[in-house]
Amino acid sequence: MNPTVYKMPRSSSLSAKPSAKPSAKPSAKPLPPKPLPPKPSKARLAVVFGDQLDLDAAIIRSLAPDDTVLMMEVANESQYVPSHMQRTTLFLSAMRHFAAELIEQKIRVNYITLDDPKNTGAFETEIARACAALKPSEIVCTHPGEWRVMAMLERVRDSTGIPLRIMPDEHFFTTGEEFAAWAKGRNSLTMEFFYREQRRKTGYLMEGSGKSAKPTGDTWNFDKENRLPFGKQGPNPKPRIPSSFKLDEITREVLAAMKRVLPDLPGSIESFAWPVTRKQALASLNDFIKYRLANFGAYEDAMWTGEPTLYHSILSSSLNMKLLNPRECCERAIESYESGNAPLQSVEAFVRQIIGWREFVRGVYWLEGPEYADRNGLDQQGKLPDFYWTAETDMACMKACVGQVLDTGYGHHIQRLMVTGNFALISGVHPRAVSDWYLGMFVDGVDWVTLPNALGMVMHADRRPNATKGVTGLVGTKPYAASGKYIERMSNYCTNCKYKPAERSGPSACPVTVFYWDFLIRTREKLAQNQRMAMILKNVDRLTPQIQTQITIDANLLRKKLGVTPM
Fold it and tell me: CB 566: neighbour CB atoms within 10 A?
């Protein structure tokens, strides 16, 4: 097994001292220098996965001339949950570009392409094959983004007898140990409290220092101000179309390999224009800061037909693959506020998404363990409706949001939480079916971020077995269930829909509204002790038994019609 890289001769064997400098410098403030990890005494196998494309990572800085970097395109990663064509294309193209950059730095690379005849199709067997050929003294890897991958690495270690060293992922602000210390002794984990600690820790948007430090503007968050709908006129100013990137030769060859090996992946590839290199990711960051950040905050919860991105950053895939550093993203946004180009409410909202929510869900993922994925706190058992794979539905909101996912592999957080997610929650879909769909069908899907968002925030299914009375979930303090009236208020989806969001019975009844009331009736006993649900459940109690029975009957008929039947 000779060290190879995409577009390089298979017999090439390139080795030299690696450079710690990325190929494209960030336009934000320079990040502080990182310590150089100790050099190994013998040649190692350094495994780099598709969500670890950071040229300044500890594992890259630690490489010695005789070490080999192993990168693998394996079919199983697009099949264990069905992966959107654009998601797989993005990861594989970014990996090939990253490998080429390593080669330019004279780093020894063994790159396994998807259509390599010897490719065994899975990480575990490919790493074992590399170990048999190279006989490394050690397997080294940056901390992976999945419990599944961690378990795989441990199996390889045990089967080969080769020591495994997991290096820290310096991309994040908070280590697993730090999050566990913060969470210790808490009956529930509230993101807002964690976020405030992050603000103090980073100094972002803070005035003063130490215990006397206060948030800029004397307000920790502007969430209440950031819930504006567009009104009948729609987005104003009209959102600028984000930067897009043409397919290059590497991406076209990825597509050709996928056509041969993975011809049946869901979704469409026609609109693919995602950044696949650090240089492109930086261009996307610049584009967001310059053209959309200013209007992001106030309208971050709004939706509009034909406007898939609105004022959102669409940087999550670049962040999750590590093409961008979260520090430079935050600092660029803060610079925009300090220079008067973006209001505080927009900048705070963006910073909160990164140092608050993103770090919080990762902490939950590693704190709760691999069994977290199996939780089903509300005991929902339904199948995911077929229209999540086709967008063939007469519900205008679902047709628009699912259709957008199929076309682009993208949906912003409110489309995910309050449309596609809300429908799955209130109709009774099994949480694992939902989390698998979110993992595979969005270009930014990585398990550490997808699972807590889908299982916890969307499905409110992650209650700890030993949770105290009144605590019904972990990531979310209450289920984010809504009727069609919410969607009508925050979008124009309902304007030409055949269903009426205010109606819960009859031929024009909105399925979202029917399922909303049915959800409250079905889960009333489980949610009764949740103080945040008290006022909402009083609305259920005002319904007569006859009305409640009719809602239950109508919802069951809808479930049967839509295929939300027991798994």
Answer: 10
The string of pLDDT tens digits covering residues 150-208 is: 999 999 999 999 999 999 999 999 999 999 999 999 888 999 999 999 999 999 999 99
Measured torsion, CA atoms of residues 58, 64, 67, 71, in degrees rounded to the nearest 10: 40
Q: Report DSSP letters for 242-309, one per residue.
A: PP-----HHHHHHHHHHHHH-TT-SS--TT-----SHHHHHHHHHHHHHHTHHHHTTTTT---TT-SS
In sign, the C-alpha dihedral spanning 296, 297, 299, 300 is positive
Token pair 């929650």 in the structure block, residue: 425
The arrangement of strands across the sheet holding 45-47 comes to: 109-112, 68-72, 45-47, 139-142, 164-167
Ordered structural domains, the chain, with CATH: 45-167 (3.40.50.620), 176-242+292-368 (1.25.40.80), 387-562 (1.10.579.10)
Question: Both tokens of residue 284?
Answer: 């996307």
For the full predicted model, state whether its pTM sits above 0.90: yes
State how far the Cα of 471 lies from the Cα of 526, in Å rounded to an integer: 10
Please report, for residues 265, 271, 386, 409, 437, the alpha-carbon distance to residue 268 in angstroms, rounded to integers and kept in the order given: 9, 7, 17, 8, 16
* Token couple for 384: 């995911």
